[in-house]
Amino acid sequence: MTSSRNIAIFDLDYTLTKKGTWGRFVASTIKTRPYLWPAIIFVMAKNQWLYKRGKAPRCGVKKAMMRLSMVGWPEDKIKRYAKAFAEREVASGLRPGAIRALEAHRAAGDTLIIASAAVDAVVRPICELLNIKHYIATDMAFVDGHLAPEFATENCYGGEKLTRMKDYLQQNPALQHNHTIITMYSDSHSDLDILLWADVGIAVDPSRCLKALANQHGLEVVNWM
């Protein structure tokens, strides 16, 4: 008889990691091209302004930064930069509480999944270094082996993250058994849908907004500083 196995899903930025990954990954790709900084800062500010006024999607900032810094790069070059970034992040950028939670779930035999709006190029090597086999992320697109200006998937954020997670589990039925408990960890109110969908939703060092929502919906709050 196969015993049930629980599933632990972790957001990445500010949940497992101390800081956001995207901006710092982009910064690592233009370290030797300082002339790009003014343009990067301008498009960040512009697209953030448009997003807050409902005139552009949230991923507009991410896409604009990618187009300025990496579009056209060979896939193997993206992978080299992402691997180096992931190695630094896993070595010194993870929250102490996150490491303890990963170890506890692993010791219990649980299946670990990272569910992140970060790009797959960054999420994949972080997962490999942490020995996590499963993840969903915002997927980059490559044409003829070079980075395209559009993403291959929707931004894995908010309601889209929950949709992607449900699809992933349906495509991988071996992950689930009759009595599986799914636990979701996140710091952000944008993950409220998936936190409430999970059997156990845990707010990790939550933003002010998520803390209020956690109190409202009875979510557990933990400190991983």
What distinguishing features does this structure have?
225 residues, 9 helices, Rossmann fold, two-stranded antiparallel sheet, 46% helix, alpha/beta, single chain, six-stranded parallel sheet, globular
Structural class: alpha/beta
Shape: globular
The CATH homology group name: HAD superfamily/HAD-like
Mean pLDDT: 91
- Major beta sheet, specifics? 6 strands, parallel
Question: What is the helix fraction of residues, given as a range?
Answer: 40-55%
Here the CATH topology equals Rossmann fold
> How many domains, as an integer?
1
Oligomer: single chain
- How many E strands? 8
Q: How do the helices and strands follow one another from N- to C-terminus?
A: EHHHHHEHEEEHEHEHE
Main β-sheet, spatial strand arrangement: 3-2-1-6-7-8
Low-pLDDT stretches: none
Give the strand content: 15-25%
Give an account of the 3D structure.
This protein has 225 residues and is an alpha/beta fold. The chain has one domain: Rossmann fold (3-Layer(aba) Sandwich), CATH 3.40.50. The chain has helices at residues 22-29, 37-52, 59-69, 75-92, 96-107, 120-129, 159-171, 192-197, 208-217; strands at residues 7-10, 111-119, 134-138, 140-143, 146-151, 182-186, 200-204, 220-222. The chain has a six-stranded parallel β-sheet with strand order 3-2-1-6-7-8. A two-stranded antiparallel ribbon has the order 4-5. β2, α6 and β3 (134-138) form a beta-alpha-beta unit. α1 runs parallel beside α3, α2 packs antiparallel against α3 and α4 (75-92) packs across α6 (120-129). The mean pLDDT is 91.
